[in-house]
Amino acid sequence: MRYSPEPEMDNLVVGIGGMTIPQTRNVGLPLMRLIRLEGIPILQQLHLEEQLLRTSSDNWCIINDGTNIPSIVMGISGKPAELLDIDLVLRDQVPVIKRNAEIGMFTGGGTVTVDHGTIFVTFICNRDAVPGLQLYPRPIMSWSSQLYSRVFQRFGDFHLRENDYVFGNRKFGGNAQSITKNRWIHHTSFLWDYEVRNMAYLKLPKRAPEYRLARDHLEFICPMKDYMPRSVFIDKTVDAISTEFSVYSEQTDPFKISSNFEPSTRLLTRQELEEVASQPESPVSQSLSL
Amino acid sequence: MASRLASRAASYLRIQVTHRGFASVVKDLNYANSHEWVKVDGKSATIGITDHAQDHLGDVVYVELPEVGVAVKQGEGFGAVESVKATSDVYSPVSGKVVEVNEELNSSPGLLFLYQVNSSPYEKGWIIKVEINDSGELKNLMDSDKYTKFCEEEDAH
Known about the structure:
The complex is a heterodimer. By secondary structure, chain A is an alpha+beta fold. Helices cover 27% and strands 28% of the residues of chain A. The two termini of chain B are 25 Å apart. The relative contact order of chain B is 0.21. The model of chain B is unreliable at 10-21 (pLDDT under 50). Classes of the chains: A alpha+beta, B alpha+beta.
């Protein structure tokens, strides 16, 4: 007769809203708490992520399948005048989210438009979550690209090219990261599909990856839907995570937690955008524009 | 390139430089395990990120500076450095009050990255100056030899 031991009910993890979660030991794999969202506004997602980065001591994965309001997300050093077609943005009243300008800021990364065709996958991890990982941008991206190569194996010629995820030389995923002493967050926006008119809000950036070779947006990116179905991508991502972590799917609504945490990511006001639109471009940025 | 610049920095600061194969470490500075350096002169401290840090972060495009007058505490964040695709918090190696911030850092028109932080992390790339309120805290930091070893151990992974 073979004896199979019961899974050990180790430390109890205090979950969202005080609910305790048994942490079953799974061959010593660290716990990762998975939140699956659909169509959540990107600003709300970013606030949740910031809160989890700063106030939780657990590892998290957040998957947001599409966002319901097309929006623009800018990095902290992003200057709206240089990166956006402000008149178009104002005309269409597109929300512009700026990753912070205060101390305690959130992720870097470039400027992207996001909409219901965007799938977001974010990892928020402790220093020891991935054994031996140095908390710098390149090692973290190297780890994440290895995870995604398992996802895209046999579906396409997947690479990490400079800081983007590409099939061949076309970008389908952009990354942003934030690193603190003991935690890090790696956030990817995957272009499963996109609306051409949303791309019109973005100007060609001054600072572009070398492999872009001055291609305009539509020549430079490709939609993931040409390679794999949406649900397959999400399922395979969860599978890939499960080889390194013991995944626990959160059942409680993460937005129902009351908290005193003040996120730093915010919407630019219409007034701020109008002020930018009314200023002439500086001679320097004119000479450098592509 | 890093060691050539470090030598120039050294002659300016009149200190010795340990030449390593890669990231340079400047003698007579103190170091935190979060890769910031501090140069202490009586009650005055100058703080920046080390060559090891700038090398690992990549091209720095922006530095989030605190306001003059704010208090800082040893081991606590006071700002952040944004490089391509990542924002990294910076931590103060000493406690005290910010008396000066390096406004030059974010005001280089026409440059796509902050030349100072990457090319001159110990000199032009300084980030804040602090009036320290507890010199005893310096014992919690590493000297150049210990920091060199610390980096070697980190990079060995």
